[in-house]
Amino acid sequence: MRTLDEIGICAKAAEPALRVLNTGKKDEALLGVAEKLLTEAAYILEANEKDVLRAKENGMKPALVDRLMLNQSRIEGMAEGIRQVAALPDPVGEVRSMKQRPNGLLIGQKRVPLGVIGIIYEARPNVTADAFALCFKAGNVVILRGGSDAFYSNLAIVEVIRAALKEHKVPEDAIQLIEDTSRKTAQEFMKMDRYVDLLIPRGGAGLIRSVLENSRIPVIETGTGNCHIFVDESADLSMAVSIIFNAKTQRIGVCNACESLVVHEKILDRLMPALKKKLDEKQVEIRGDEKAAAAVDGVVLATEEDWGTEYLDYILSVKTVGSIDEAIAHINRYNTGHSEAIITSDYANAQKFLNEIDAAAVYVNASTRFTDGYEFGFGAEIGISTQKLHARGPMGLEALTSYKYIIYGNGQIR
Amino acid sequence: MRTLDEIGICAKAAEPALRVLNTGKKDEALLGVAEKLLTEAAYILEANEKDVLRAKENGMKPALVDRLMLNQSRIEGMAEGIRQVAALPDPVGEVRSMKQRPNGLLIGQKRVPLGVIGIIYEARPNVTADAFALCFKAGNVVILRGGSDAFYSNLAIVEVIRAALKEHKVPEDAIQLIEDTSRKTAQEFMKMDRYVDLLIPRGGAGLIRSVLENSRIPVIETGTGNCHIFVDESADLSMAVSIIFNAKTQRIGVCNACESLVVHEKILDRLMPALKKKLDEKQVEIRGDEKAAAAVDGVVLATEEDWGTEYLDYILSVKTVGSIDEAIAHINRYNTGHSEAIITSDYANAQKFLNEIDAAAVYVNASTRFTDGYEFGFGAEIGISTQKLHARGPMGLEALTSYKYIIYGNGQIR
């Protein structure tokens, strides 16, 4: 088992080869990895069984065991995901806005890999293949630190990927797994800014907070979404109900689900009964302020804490406002910089909301559930950034690259 | 005097107004600031005199006193710099690559301000006006923490800027100065990630290291440049000598000055005598490896430490290599990710160097001294980033922005 330092050194050693690996070679290797995941499926499933057995013995909740468990069709899904990444355009090498300066220098901005990317994640073993494919396609070396629950699965998947890379004469160290899953080692890993250019945590709020607090490597914060929908006075009622129902209930555990409603007081009495009726289909609990509670029966009174809570559950908070300005101020105070929507038929209010809301994705008349790399047309997604530096919103391959300036001269001096 | 917490709260309170301030209003305010710096020049010079007097009493070196000192023409320079920033195109508001998705959603990427930017800098008081103008033009609030040596100057300049903003009905808190210049307060400031979106240190290596180690706010690393020039076997000799002389001696204390030469052994004997003769004009000390020392008289033997040293002085190290691959490996090992150049007449080697060198700016046949926001045509520069995340190389106004996705729908749900 390699030490953390050895892992860092091996990653750095693989980096120059990855940096200049051409697209054809990368795609060939990715297809080889996809193929090998299938031919070695039995080996991976055997390893996964060990993890699942141990998890059940430890009393893991069935929903979590389900996330951990692999089967033939899930492995096929992993392989298909890798094939899709191979089919995406390579972001590396593109030169943007090359311009001639008055002194004759020709200066362009060339897209290049970031270098070494660290991923810290929790129980889902499919992240292993997925994160590798995206980092690799963008020319990066990846160091993975998966959760202890998926230890055997991750080990097997990484072994298979490395074997496939070797067959395609690509440095195996393009992917390495930190086998020691202790918290102490994770903390040490976060200090390895000498070797790692970017750290992406994928998992729950606790994991992300811990990485943000401890990392000396630049981190991209992902995944927390206290998303709002503002129902403007002029909203189409049936559209509002349909969008809210979709954003709240289509999938409750995801970061782009709607957690809080902000309603203009002039539409409150018309909206609430229709909305309550629809949300009752899925037993959604509504926690509203006094006005919202007065508008329809069965609304629980919200507390201050509700406005800042990402429920990830069949619960929705409702805040009443007297104006769009009040709505925007409320949302900008409590949102997590993820996805916010307005339902309106008023042109000026639509534009005002788009301009003044501070979030990664701002919608007019659509569900917040669309904040997603696939839905945005990026073909893939490594996460959804809720910070403003480097990448914001759904991160596709481009978010895994940097650029450098290339300058063609013929003897210029200053 | 406001506490750090009050400063953070006031900055956040000013942020929404800055975010939507239109270009005309921003430019008007900037021109007002430039004007007021001139009408209040006597007041600023009086304050500066206090700093200069104290600095001399404390035995500050004349070169540093000169950097600290303001006079009428330097204040005119500050005002002119602000007018130039006002004349630059506003990066905020541009919507890139708006596309229609199959479901009819129209998704575009809109450039927006970053939010609150912190700048930690050392003795030069002109940075105060300069950093404010760039941050403000890009719609950001700025919190400045200048050095204690320029305390009175900074206080006066910020007071004048705030007065001009007030006259133009722009929130004065668009700029705030941390008046407590203690190290302890600086350290606390670096932990204010709740209020500050980005921290940019401007100053010497010690300051930058301290910020990198202590900051919980995302930092952009700037300004360290161990820049190399590789003289390929096929180089035009007189071009090589001219570029090296320029990159080494035109201005020695800057981050884009050349610190180290890498020479192909087949051109060493021809290059060194001509180069030595030229560098002697400015008494440049040459520290070479054994081969370089054998090629011409008067070369000091280099130690391992020399390869990693940014001299910022009339000293140049010379490393001999047997191939371009060896040159690239050496440079990628010792460079600081700033600016690297090759002098060559060989097409394949030029392209290879551009592809394989890992640095912010990679040159063929030109001086490294061109790595600069003005020279690159950005019209201004807040610093030169030597990291890969968010911004790399010279940072103009665009580096002080982020983006958000704006999505126009008509009822779409998933």
List keywords for this structure.
15 helices, globular, 4-stranded parallel beta sheet, Aldehyde Dehydrogenase, Chain A, domain 2, 414 residues, 16 strands, 2 domains, Aldehyde Dehydrogenase, Chain A, domain 1, alpha/beta
Walk me through what this model shows.
- The structure is a homodimer of 414-residue chains.
- The first copy, chain A, is α/β, with parallel strands linked by helices and 414 residues long.
- Helices cover 43% and strands 21% of the residues of chain A.
- The first copy, chain A, has 2 domains: 4-221 and 391-408, 3-Layer(aba) Sandwich (Aldehyde Dehydrogenase, Chain A, domain 1), CATH 3.40.605.10; 227-370, Aldehyde Dehydrogenase, Chain A, domain 2 (3-Layer(aba) Sandwich).
- Chain A contains 15 helices and 16 strands.
- Chain A has a 7-stranded parallel beta sheet with strand order 10-9-11-8-7-12-13.
- In chain A, strand 9 (285-288), helix 12 (290-295) and strand 10 (300-301) form a beta-alpha-beta unit.
- Chains A and B meet through strand 2, helix 10, helix 15, strand 13 and strand 16 of A and strand 2, helix 10, helix 15, strand 13 and strand 16 of B.
- Strand 13 (361-366) of chain A pairs parallel with strand 16 of chain B, so a sheet runs across the interface.
Spatial strand arrangement across the major sheet of chain A: 10-9-11-8-7-12-13
Amino-to-carboxy terminus distance of chain A: 53 Å
Domain count of chain A: the total is 2
Radius of gyration based on Cα positions of chain A: 24 Å
- The mean pLDDT of chain A is 96
Query: Main interface pair?
Result: A-B, 64 and 64 residues
CATH T-level fold name of the largest domain in chain A? Aldehyde Dehydrogenase, Chain A, domain 1
The CATH homologous superfamily of the largest domain in chain A is called Aldehyde Dehydrogenase, Chain A, domain 1
Structural class based on helices, strands and sheet pairing of chain A:
alpha/beta
Percentage of residues in DSSP E strands of chain A: 15-25%
Q: What is the annotated CATH architecture of the largest domain in chain A? A: 3-Layer(aba) Sandwich
**Number of separate strands of chain A:** 16
Low-confidence runs of at least 5 consecutive residues of chain A: none
> Percent of residues of chain A in helical segments?
40-55%
Main beta sheet strand tally, sense and closure of chain A: 7 strands, parallel
Shape of chain A: globular
- Which assembly state applies to the chains in this document? homodimer
Number of helices of chain A: 15
- What is the CATH class name of the largest domain in chain A? Alpha Beta
